[in-house]
Each structure stands twice: as structure tokens, then as C-alpha cells.
Amino acid sequence: TVIAIFLSLLALWNSSAAVEDPIAAAGAFKFNEGTVAPVFSIRNLAGDQVKLEDFRGKVVLLDFWATW
């Protein structure tokens, strides 16, 4: 039983190769300097619509999270 567990763990360890570029592997967008940001708008807590272009030239941090 111990040998079977060891061999199973060894097989799992060998199959989990390191990812060269984790951002590309995650399917994340990677923007280069000078790339135009996508059109994005959302309503704030006051109910007003806020557009990404309203913050042109400023640093913007978008933090999306959820609890499921």
C-alpha cells in the first residue's frame, strides 16, 4: 500500500511541470505600453456610471473578487 501511494505521488509530481509563463497559462491579457485599453464601464456605489476613459492618464487599479 505504501509503495502504491509513493508511485502515485511520484507520477503526479512528474506530470506537474513548471509553467514557463504563468500569465499566459492563465489566459490573462498582457498589455504593452501604448496599447489602448478596452472600453470598460461600471456603476459605482452611488449608481453613477463610471468609464475607464474617465481616468485617462491616471493609475487605475481594478480589484475584482467574490466569495462563493
Q: What can you see in these coordinates?
A:
- The mean pLDDT is 75.
- This protein has two helices and two strands.
- It has helices spanning 2-15, 22-25, and strands spanning 41-43, 49-51.
- It has one domain (2-55).
- It starts with a helix and ends in a 17-residue tail after the last strand.
- It is α+β, with helices and mostly antiparallel strands and 68 residues long.
Number of domains: 1
For the terminal residues, how far apart are their CA atoms? Answer: 37 Å
Identify the strand order in the major beta sheet: 1-2
From the alpha-carbon coordinates, what is the Rg to the nearest angstrom?
22 Å
Portion in helices:
25-40%
Number of strands: 2
Stretches with pLDDT under 50, minimum 5 residues: none
What's the story with the biggest beta sheet?
2 strands, antiparallel
Q: Kindly state the mean pLDDT as a whole number? A: 75
Which structural class do the helices and strands define? alpha+beta
Number of DSSP helices?
A: 2
Strand content: 5-15%
The string of secondary-structure elements, in order, is HHEE
Tell the overall outline. Answer: elongated
